[in-house]
Design brief:
Nucleotidyltransferase, domain 5, alpha/beta, 118 residues, 6 strands
Amino acid sequence: MRILIPTDGAGGEDAPVASHLGRCGSFTVVDEKGRVIETVENAGRHHGGSATPAEQCLSLRPDVVLCHGLGRNAVTVFGKAGVRVMVSLGERAADILHAWQAGEARDALYEEACAGHG
């Protein structure tokens, strides 16, 4: 299973979880045991790229996205692709993963997503 976490800085298990998926500095992809598979710089539209952040995330083939917040467009894009998006608390990537493992994450809802982003 591939779990994508939007992180600040260069990413990794000790990187802070970004407050908003589209504005994160990197995407950290881990397996269900917390092993880092890859970290990728966010090159989406908010950072000068041509793809939306959600489209860039999909290119990393996640099964689940764990985050603090995201825009409505991202919720829609992930939903159409069959990627489950969940929100939870956790300061670092490892923390939000542990919260998810403990059943402390919930599905992201379109109605609760940031309306300013799609």
